[in-house]
Amino acid sequence: MASKLRYSEAFYSVQGEGRFVGVPSVFLRTFGCNFRCMNFGIDRHPNRAEKLKQGIKYNPEVKALIDDGILDKVDKFEDLPIIHTGCDTYASIYPEFKKYMMDKTVDEVVDHVLSLTPEGRWTMSNGQDVHFILTGGEPLLGWQRLYIELFEHPRMKDLKNVTFETNTTQVLHKDFEDYLRKQDRFEVTWSCSPKLSVSGEPWATAIKPEIALAYNRIPNSKMYFKFVVADATDVDEVTKAVAEYNKVGIDVPVYIMPLGGRSEEYKLNTKNVAELAMARGWRYTPRLHVDIFGNAWGT
Ligand code: SF4
Question: In which region does residue 281 sit, left (phi positive, over 0), alpha (psi from -120 to 50) or beta (all else)?
Answer without folding.
Answer: left
